[in-house]
Design brief:
- There is one protein chain.
- The chain contains 11 helices and 5 strands.
- It has about 250 residues and is mainly alpha-helical.
- Among the domains are: about 80-140, Winged helix-like DNA-binding domain superfamily/Winged helix DNA-binding domain (Arc Repressor Mutant, subunit A, Orthogonal Bundle), CATH 1.10.10; about 150-230, Arc Repressor Mutant, subunit A.
- The strands form 2 sheets. Strands 3-5-4 form a 3-stranded antiparallel β-sheet.
- A hairpin with a 2-residue loop joins strand 1 and strand 2 (about 135-140).
- InterPro entries: ArsR-like_HTH, HTH_ArsR_DNA-bd_dom, HTH_HVO_0163_N, WH-like_DNA-bd_sf, WH_DNA-bd_sf.
- Pfam families: HTH_24, HTH_HVO_0163_N.
Length: about 250
């Protein structure tokens, strides 16, 4: 609408009429005469408001056609992995399920904007699954054979403090808050807050024993951890005395 209207007439000839005294619309020199119907009111108003439309050259539409050659392409699940960067990110998430965005950014050699764009693109086409937990977005490959309980546990094991607490409770079923805090070398308040979170997830069960509250691992999560232990190589460390949790956190399937 903001284009400057430009008109270029090949030739116009104006001369006095020679049909004086005759009925308007009659042929003067044998030319073909055709009556022109008046334009509709809506078209008259449109052309009055936007006169540029009457003289805009067709060349002004060429940029619209050129937009198709600028690399625009609708991304869908079938062609999303044509990008080498997205393929690498997807392989990384498959090997490291449950990592949150900031940790992926720290370990993947991409800028924040580029990584965010590719992650959101793969999420929108159904290649990635996200879980929001404690204010952080954790990523899994869509369709990965993890149950909801396994996903909860994998996310918890990605946190070093939670991993140490889960390990301690697994090895010492029925331990109280003070015992756990001493063994994992964390403050009692910190351990209490983490255990409350694990209780909400259903990972830990609390049972009062007089003035002491003792914690055990839920049976279903104990089975999951045992299954993980059989699929992992020993990786003993101070934070992992059992040797069944890998330094990276969890196994991939």
């Amino acid at each position: 609408m903001l284009l400057v209207a430009v008109a270029d007439a090949t030739e116009y000839t104006v001369r006095p009429s020679r049909n004086v005294g005759q009925e308007p619309g009659m042929s003067i020199s044998g030319e073909k005469v055709q009556e022109v119907d008046p334009i509709p009111l809506w078209l008259f108003l449109l052309l009055s408001v936007f006169p540029q439309l009457t003289a805009a050259p067709i060349e002004t539409l060429i940029p619209l056609k050129a937009a198709g050659y600028l690399g625009y392409k609708r991304i869908c699940k079938e062609n999303a992995l044509e990008s080498p960067q997205r393929r690498k990110i997807l392989r990384f998430v498959k090997r490291n399920p449950g990592l949150h965005f900031r940790e992926i950014l720290r370990r993947v050699p991409l800028t924040r904007g580029t990584l965010d764009y590719h992650m959101k693109t793969m999420e929108s086409v159904g290649l990635l699954k996200t879980i929001l937990e404690r204010g952080r977005t954790h990523y899994f490959v869509a369709g990965a054979p993890y149950s909801a309980e396994e996903e909860n546990l994998i996310i918890a094991l990605r946190n070093e403090s939670l991993r140490r607490i889960i390990t301690e409770i697994y090895l010492n079923q029925g331990a109280c808050n003070e015992e756990i805090a001493e063994d994992v070398e964390l403050s009692g308040v910190t351990v209490y807050e983490h255990i409350r979170y694990l209780e909400d997830l259903g990972v830990v069960i609390a049972e009062r024993d007089g003035r002491c509250v003792r914690y055990t691992l839920a049976e279903n999560y104990s089975r999951i951890l045992m299954d993980m232990r059989t699929r992992l190589k020993p990786a003993r460390s101070a934070a992992d005395p059992a040797g069944w949790i890998s330094p990276g956190g969890v196994p991939s399937r």
